[in-house]
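Worked problem 6 (solution included).
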Amino acid sequence: MNQNSAQRMPVRVMILISLYVVLTLVAIWRAITFEAFDLLTLGVIPVFIGLLIRAPWAKVLLLSYVALQSLGLVAMTTTALIAYQITPEDVKLVFRGYNIPLIPLWLLLLSVVVFQWWVGLSNATRDYLAQK
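Solution. The predicted structure is:
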């Protein structure tokens, strides 16, 4: 087969794999440091490997993982909104002494989840994973 006719990795998949490299490193660091073994953290590793090797099961795993992330985001958002109605002064996120604003953080997380849905459901990703 001519190398020029081999399908190149779509840019959106490259960006997603780059994001998953960072998330995989954070997941491994979190697992080692805090001994935290959960599906949201370590679930990125098989998705990342599946995308790299272009496995036929990678798309199913990707969509399942993003669905789990979406469910977690909705649950945390609902919890924060209910807590804000009860005691607004207690709803804050502090990391190492820095107060992290919740609305920009929520918008960032929402955009990451929406991007993953867009990549996972795109025809370019389907075609990329279908051909080896």
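Discussion: The radius of gyration is 18 Å.
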